[in-house]
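Researcher: Please predict.
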Amino acid sequence: MQGWLLDFAEYVRELLPEELAEPFIALARPAIRLSVTEKGENVVGRLGGLPRLPEGVSWPRAGDGGPAMRFLAELDCAALAAYEPDIDLPAEGTLLFFTTWDCTAARVIPLPPGAVRVAEREVPVRGEARVFPEAPLTAVTEPSWPDPGHPAVLDAFGSLDAARELVWDRVVHLDDEDEDSGDEDSGDGGETFAWELELYGERRKRRGPRHQVGGYSDALQPPVGTAAASAAGLDPKDPGFAAEASQWVNLLQLDEDNGMIFGDGAVLIFGIRRDRLAARDFSQIFPYVQGH
């Protein structure tokens, strides 16, 4: 079992019976959490600064000649490979992430290793293309798990309603009064598994902004795959809806940090289909803002 999963698997097995714990553990995915680098830590990318685009590569704009996009982040794919990504990132090179000021459009520009980049390049316009402070990023691999409405849950448990009842809403810790009564089936007297998962995230994951590569994105609203399938015009009742939703992954999730604002306590997710990522086709990125 991978190192990132050991502690999480032990935690789940303490709370759920084996017939529920094992399929839930199987759903876990490694998430590469990013944070601003401290002295001595490995650098895997950066927030902000100038993109340092090669000669001949234009600063991306919205639509056909629209406003210039904002440069948000850069990832070093070779450096990230050491952190067990669950998505098929390129083995080398860098990815540059841009978005419009309102996050309705996004671009990801892949650069091959050894690309000759221009250190200083004038920002095309002021305002929309604001330059954020440059901050190097480090990484750690942590477990992530789906919310009860994720398509992967349907595959694992056969029914979203059944999964919610059997797993997420299951009472796993009784309060003091119920423990004294000796009644283990006292219903509303304890904490649910969903609550214990939230506590695990608060106590055992790295604190700070929720920047992340791969894994399950932070689901304040429906997951990115569900949103992408809906945006494609599919009806949730359509048999092909879940299949399409399952094809989408979190290429990069950025939290509001370093001067970047996406909404009311929101995160911005750069979604991409698995097949396009495998083909190194970054031309159809789905930007998804999840906020309150």
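Model: Residues 267 and 273 are 19 Å apart (CA to CA).
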